[in-house]
Structures are given as C-alpha cells and as structure tokens.
Amino acid sequence: MKLNPPQLEAHLKKSLAPIYIIGGEELVLKNEAMQLIRRTAKQQDYTERYRFSTASEFDWGDLQTVLQSTSLMATKKIVELDFRDQLPPKMACTILEAYASNPSPDTLLLIELSKIEDKISRAAWFKACDKAGINLTYWPLAREQLPAWLQQRAQKYKLSLSSDATQLLADYVEGNLVAASHMLEKLYLMKLEGSITSAQLEPILADESRYSVFDLMDAVLNAQLEKTQNILKGLQDDGVEAPIVLWAITRELRLLAQLGQEKGRGQTLDSLFQKHRIFTKRQPGFRRFLQKNQPDDCLRYLTAAEKVDACIKGAAPGKPFEALTLLCLSLV
Hints:
Blueprint: H1 8-14, E1 19-24, H2 27-43, E2 46-53, H3 61-68, E3 76-82, H4 90-100, E4 107-112, H5 118-121, H6 124-132, E5 134-138, H7 146-156, E6 160-161, H8 163-173, H9 177-189, E7 195-196, H10 198-206, H11 213-221, H12 225-237, H13 242-264, H14 269-275, H15 283-292, H16 295-312, H17 320-331
Parallel strand pairs: 1-4, 1-5, 2-3, 3-4, 6-7
C-alpha cells in the first residue's frame, strides 16, 4: 500500500507493517524514514538485524534462510535489502514474491530502492511486497517547499530562524538537504540565542569555505580539471570518508544516465531539468556532460565506480582517493 511520507510517523504509532519499501533519491529524508522504522521496531523487540546489498557478492539462498528461519532465542529480526545500485536478480525476486505471500510476524523486511520506476512497480515481487506492506517515495523538495522544511528542521534543534534567515539558508543550500542539516547542526552547536537573523547568518555562511562532495560533482560536470583535483585533495584533508565521495559520484551518474535515456526519447533538456528539479545554477554543467556523453557512457562510468568501491572496501588493490581521482578525471 502506498503511503504519503508525512503519514509515516502517525502510521507507526498505530501499527508496524511486515514490509516497508523506501524509494526515492532524497537521501536525508529516506534515511530519517528508515531510522524511524528501525527505532519503532526496536521498541517492539526486533533486536536482530541482517543486511543484504546487490552491491556485494553473496549467495541469495542466505536471504531465503534468514527469512524462513526461526531464532532459537525467540527474538524478532529486521532484514534490510539495499537495491539502490541494481535491482534484485531473478532468484531474489522469486524469494521475495513467495515470502510476501505469507510474511513472518517476527520479521520486519525493509527494502531500499532508488527511484521506483514503472518497470519496478510492475514487477511481481514488488507488487507482492506492496500488497503485504507499505511503500513510500521520497522526492527532492521543490524550491518553494524548502523554507518550510528548514523551519521544521530548525525546531528539532530548538533553533528559531527569522523568515529572511530561512530564505537566505534556502538559497545557500539550493535544495541540498545534507548541507542544510549540516548548517543547522552547526548553528545549534554555536548556541545562538533568540531568533537568528540573516545579518547573523551571512558571516557564518561566508565562513563555510571548505568544499563539499557536491562542489566536486559541479567541477566534474563543468570540466574543471584543476578544481576537481583540488576539491578531492581538500575532501581528503578534511577527513571526508571515501564512500561518501563515491556515493555522490554514483548518485549523479545514475541521474545523468536517466536524463540521457529520456533525452534520447525526445524530451527536451529544459523539460527534464524541471521534471528532475535541477537548479538553474547546475544546468550548464549537465548540458555539457550530456552533449559529450551517451547514456551507455554513464553506465560504463558506473561500472568503473564499482571497481573504485572494491578498492575502498579492500577487495581490490590501490588507494581509495587515488582511485576516486582517476574516476573523476575520466568524467571531466
């Protein structure tokens, strides 16, 4: 059953479904939803936790064993499936479809996807899981929705933002909720009193001179070779973990591959930028990249990213940031 994201908290206060499918590309909102589901489950004595990902190699028969097994300690368990990088193979689809027809009352199945496209929603395993549980999709916030979200988020940090400060912060983060959360956390740690005004906020934003993973992708898309190398070095010096950098790169590549495919079907870039909520400031970089590369190129780059992931995990030789640098330079 499809549920609107704002309804999740009220739903969990009433009951816990046996299956949840969390889709979309808004990382912050998705992570918060999954944490809320995990926290609710923990309160109801779901103490064991298993996680499977299509990005890792393992025997899918293990998933069937975990779903069907009963703990000797009579404990409840959470089984998480990460299908963001690629969809489940045929064996996993068969297992999920069969399990969803009779889910265990002692097991919570939590499935994470990227976008829930028509091909996914028509799949038999998805229909079965949707019928037995709940599915939610978290889209990036529209520009006009961001100030309200910032105000709501600020309240969680016990912060008060004036309307002009809220608008200033909304313009600064340009829809990047990770950056917005980081800034609100920083304001909280600064222990500012009263309503924070734009005059107080401006110098704090100006002090945010360090590069982010999002600056990296803008430099890559705009073919800024030297800047790309400088940002990567800055991220490494600042202690940013290699998996976070790789996540930002692969997230953008998946979006670019989709834009390229839709463009190939006759849609204009202007309409696609509006559809996918790509801010005006970023559009020139997207145009340049899509004129230079075909959708198949993006898929080839994603394959290269998998090799970098293996390097980061120690399954392949090399230094993570050197591998990331080579990947980024191949995209420029």
